C-alpha cells in the first residue's frame, strides 16, 4: 500500500482536470504549465498546448490514439494536471493539513536565548526588553525536550532573539545537550539555522556555529550603506552595514548565508543598489537573497504602518526589483512552497517558540508578548485555562471553513495564510504575494532553470 | 511536456530522500517571517514542501 499521503491515481477510468492548473506564456513563446497541488512546473510548445487544452476540456471523450498522445496523458497525470474524476482535491488537502499539523513525530523549536539586541531597527516588531535565559530555564528546557523525544522522530531547532549571538554560551550548552539527547533517543537532529543581524558573526563564532551543526544563517541587509544604516543601527545610533558586510564575506565559505532584504516605502527606491554591491562581491550567483515584506505585525511596530505596502503593492514591487536585479545577473528566484501540512509553527501541535523566560508561544511575533499569550512553559506540565484557550485558538484555526480560501486555486501553496494575522485580524488581506505575481515569479524561475540547464551542457 | 521543477508529490522515494537528506531544499526559498516553516519542511520527508529542479528533464 502506498503512503496515505500519496494521491492514488487508481486506474484512471475517468479523468478530470485539476482545479489547480495554471497555463500561461513564457517570454520565449513556450507555454508554462504549473499545478499548485503537485507544485510542479513544466513547459510545452504551442502545438502541445493546444492539444492539452482539448484534452482538459473533455478528457473522457478525447482519443489517446497515438503514442505521443498517450505520453502526453502520462505527463499530465504525473503533475496532477489531469486527475482521476473520483478524487476530491480539497478533501486531500484537508487530510494532509490534519496529518501534518497534529503529528507528534517531529518536535520543532524556535529558541530565543535572549531578548537583548545590539541593534535598534526602525521596524522591529519586538518590544525592547533585555532578559536572557538563565541556567534554570536552560535545564528546564532540556528536560522539556527530553520528555518529548520519546515520541518524536525528528527534532529541529532555529535560533533567534533578540540577537541570539549575544548569548552564544546558551546556544552552545543547549545544542550539546540536545545532541546527546537525540543520540540517546535515536532521534534525527538535522542541521540548525540561526536568524542573526550578523554584527557579531566573527570568524571564530562562525566556525563554532559550524561545529555545533548550525549551518544556515539568515542575515539582513536593507540597502546600500546609508539606507541600511538608517534602518538597522546600533543602540548608540552608529551604522552597521560595513561590519555586517565584512562578516558575511568571512562567513560565506563556512555557512549557508541567506540575505534578507526587508522592503517598505522607506527603502524601496534604493534597494536595487544592493544588487550592484552583490555583483561587486560575486554574490549574485552564490548567496541567495530574497525580499521580505515589512508589515506592522505587532503593537511595537504599529507606528510604521504608513510606511508599509499592502501585499498587492508589495507583490508588484518585488517583480520590478527582480527585473532590475536580473539585468545585473541575479540567478536564483523564489518558488512557491506547498503548505499542505500546515502553514508554520503556529498551527502545528508540536512546535513552539521558546522565550528566555521559559514560556512557550506559538508564533514568533509573540516572543515579547505578555505571558498571558503563552501556550505553556518549560517548567509546568499542566497548562493554565488561559494557555489552553490560546492553544486551542491556534490549533483549531481552520482555513477550510473559509470558502474564499477553499475556492482559491492557490490554496495548496497558502493554506489560508498566516494564522497569527488571521486570528488577530491584523490584515484585511491575508493572501500570500503569489496570489498577485505567480505568473511573473514562475517566469523568473523558468529563466533560472533554463540558464542552469544551459550551463550544464 | 518537459518538467522543469517537480514538486514533492511527483518525486520518487529515492528522490525525496535525496532532497530531505541534504541541502537541496534551502530555507532561502522562505520569504515568510517564520523560517521555522521551512526548517520543518526540509526534514519531514512526506511533509516536505521542497522541490527539485529537474535539470535533466526532457
What's the helix and strand layout?
The complex is a heterodimer of chains A (457) and B (58).
Chain A: E1 15-17, E2 21-25, E3 31-35, E4 40-44, H1 46-57, H2 67-78, E5 82-84, H3 89-101, E6 106-111, E7 119-121, H4 135-148, E8 154-159, H5 168-185, E9 192-195, H6 203-211, E10 214-220, H7 225-231, E11 232-234, H8 241-251, E12 256-263, H9 273-280, E13 289-293, H10 311-328, E14 351-354, E15 359-361, E16 376-377, H11 385-395, H12 403-407, H13 419-424, H14 434-456
Helix pairs in contact in A: 4-5, 10-14
Chain B: E1 2-7, H1 13-21, H2 36-43, E2 51-53
Antiparallel strand pairs in B: 1-2
What is the tally of helical segments of chain B? 2
Distance between the termini of chain B: 8 Å
Give the overall silhouette of chain A. Answer: globular
Give the assembly state of these chains. heterodimer
Structural class of chain A: alpha/beta
Give the CA-CA distance, first to last residue of chain A.
40 Å
Structural class of chain B: alpha+beta
Spatial order of the strands forming the largest sheet of chain A: 13-12-10-9-8-6-14-15-16
Which terms summarize this structure?
heterodimer, A: 457 residues, alpha/beta, 3-stranded antiparallel β-sheet, globular, disordered N terminus, B: 58 residues, alpha+beta, two-stranded antiparallel sheet, 2 helices
Amino acid at each position: 500500500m502506498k503512503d496515505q499521503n500519496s494521491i492514488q491515481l487508481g486506474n484512471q477510468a475517468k479523468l478530470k482536470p485539476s482545479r489547480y492548473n495554471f497555463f500561461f506564456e513564457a517570454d520565449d513563446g513556450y507555454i508554462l504549465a504549473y499545478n499548485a497541488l503537485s507544485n510542479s512546473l513544466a513547459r510545452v510548445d504551442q502545438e502541445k498546448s493546444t492539444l492539452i487544452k482539448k484534452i482538459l476540456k473533455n478528457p473522457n471523450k478525447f482519443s489517446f490514439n497515438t503514442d505521443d498522445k498517450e505520453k502526453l496523458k502520462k505527463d499530465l497525470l504525473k503533475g496532477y494536471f489531469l486527475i482521476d474524476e473520483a478524487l476530491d482535491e480539497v478533501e486531500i488537502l484537508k487530510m494532509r493539513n490534519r496529518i501534518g499539523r497534529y503529528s507528534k513525530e517531529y518536535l520543532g523549536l524556535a529558541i530565543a536565548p535572549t531578548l537583548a539586541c545590539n541593534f535598534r531597527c526602525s521596524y522591529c516588531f519586538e518590544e525592547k526588553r533585555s532578559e536572557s535565559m538563565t541556567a534554570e530555564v536552560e535545564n528546564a528546557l532540556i528536560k522539556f525536550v527530553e520528555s518529548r523525544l520519546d515520541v518524536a522522530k525528528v527534532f529541529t531547532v532555529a535560533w533567534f532573539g533578540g540577537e541570539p549571538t549575544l548569548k552564544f554560551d546558551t546556544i552552545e550548552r543547549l545544542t550539546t545537550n540536545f545532541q546527546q539527547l537525540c543520540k540517546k533517543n535515536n532521534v534525527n537532529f538535522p542541521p540548525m539555522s540561526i536568524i542573526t543581524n550578523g554584527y557579531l558573526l566573527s570568524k571564530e563564532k562562525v566556525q563554532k556555529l559550524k561545529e555545533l551543526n548550525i549551518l544556515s544563517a539568515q542575515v539582513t541587509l536593507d540597502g546600500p550603506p546609508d539606507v541600511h544604516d538608517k534602518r538597522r543601527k546600533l543602540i548608540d545610533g552608529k551604522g552597521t552595514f560595513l561590519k555586517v558586510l565584512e562578516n558575511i564575506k568571512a562567513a560565506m565559505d563556512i555557512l549557508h548565508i541567506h540575505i534578507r532584504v526587508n522592503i517598505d516605502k522607506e527603502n524601496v527606491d534604493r534597494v536595487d543598489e544592493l544588487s550592484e554591491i552583490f555583483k561587486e562581491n560575486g554574490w549574485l550567483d552564490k548567496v541567495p537573497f530574497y525580499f521580505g515584506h515589512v508589515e506592522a505585525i505587532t503593537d511595537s511596530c504599529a507606528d510604521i504602518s504608513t510606511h508599509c505596502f499592502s501585499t498587492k503593492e508589495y507583490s508588484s514591487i518585488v517583480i520590478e526589483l527582480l527585473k532590475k536585479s536580473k539585468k545585473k545577473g541575479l540567478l536564483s528566484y523564489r518558488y512557491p512552497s506547498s503548505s499542505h501540512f500546515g502553514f508554520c509553527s503556529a498551527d502545528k501541535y508540536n512546535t513552539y517558540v521558546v522565550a528566555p523566560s521559559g514560556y512557550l508561544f506559538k508564533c514568533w511575533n509573540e516572543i515579547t508578548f505578555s505571558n498571558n499569550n503563552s501556550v505553556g512553559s518549560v517548567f509546568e506540565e499542566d497548562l493554565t485555562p488561559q494557555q489552553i484557550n490560546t492553544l486551542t485558538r491556534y490549533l483549531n484555526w481552520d482555513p477550510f471553513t473559509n470558502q474564499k480560501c477553499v475556492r482559491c486555486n492557490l490554496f495548496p501553496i497558502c493554506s489560508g495564510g498566516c494564522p497569527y494575522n488571521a486570528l488577530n485580524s491584523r490584515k484585511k488581506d491575508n493572501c500570500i504575494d503569489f496570489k498577485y505575481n505567480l505568473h511573473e515569479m514562475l517566469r523568473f524561475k523558468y529563466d533560472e532553470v533554463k540558464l542552469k540547464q544551459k550551463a550544464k551542457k | 511536456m518537459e518538467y522543469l521543477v517537480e514538486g514533492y508529490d511527483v518525486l520518487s522515494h529515492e528522490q525525496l530522500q535525496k532532497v530531505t537528506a541534504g541541502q537541496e531544499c534551502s530555507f532561502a526559498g522562505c520569504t515568510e517571517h517564520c523560517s521555522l516553516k521551512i526548517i520543518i519542511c526540509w526534514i519531514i520527508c512526506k511533509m516536505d514542501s521542497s522541490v527539485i529542479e529537474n535539470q535533466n528533464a526532457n
